Amino acid sequence: MEENEIIQNSAHRCPSKVYPLTTGDISQLPPSRPPHYQHFQIKKLPKLIIITLLVVAASISLTALICILMYFTLGPKLPSLHLDTFSVSNFTIGSTNLIAKWDFNLTFKNPDHLWQIYLDYIECIALNHDHFPIAINHSVSPPFKVKPMKKSTIHVQLATGDSLIFLNHQLLQKINSQRRNGRMVVFGLAVRAKTRFTGVSWLWWTEFANLMYTCLDLKVGFKGLSDSDVGMFIGRLPKQC
């Protein structure tokens, strides 16, 4: 008995249609369909557009590199602060309070050739020999600027009545002991400055900084013990803070 192979035609979806074949006879097979491939057509960009994009990318990278180098090499230099004069008057020490008035001149020097400095806010704090604040003056002068390679001087007055600072009895005794024993009292000075740095026309950015200066070991001598005596700075001036 001969075996017949039955092959279902994939082109006909009806399951009732089959094609009986004898062994080795393929003449009755339906023609096969060629495989279907989806062709994608890749459009090539013109060379001019590619060159333009490369030039733009290179220009942006070069500009960013120049800005970074300028920031680290041409950045602003911090101003220096010098104490030109320093005196104390109306100096009175009570059992629970201290009354005094400080007069001094401060000079800000700009060491930079390209940047000018704007001092928007300045705060001065008078300290005792243990660096404890005994008087504070906020915003001692209107905002001013210091041009490149120039300097500006301001006059500052501090008084104990400008701010409410409580001094303990032990601290007052130490200050009074300095005054009576050696007729010399040691003070300190702290200066806080809120600054802006603006460059020349081709330096288009602005820098901000909060600076802190301290002038310590400021020895003030009094001729006598009278409250009307004016204490003068002992040492060489100007003194860099």
From TrEMBL:
This is Late embryogenesis abundant protein LEA-2 subgroup domain-containing protein. GO terms for biological process: defense response to other organism. The keyword Membrane applies. Its main location: membrane. Coiled coil: none annotated. The keyword Electron transport does not apply. It comes from Citrus sinensis (Sweet orange). It is found in: Membrane. It comes from the Eukaryota. Keywords: Membrane, Transmembrane, Transmembrane helix. InterPro entries: NDR1-like (IPR044839). GO terms for cellular component: membrane. The chain crosses the membrane at residues 48-72.
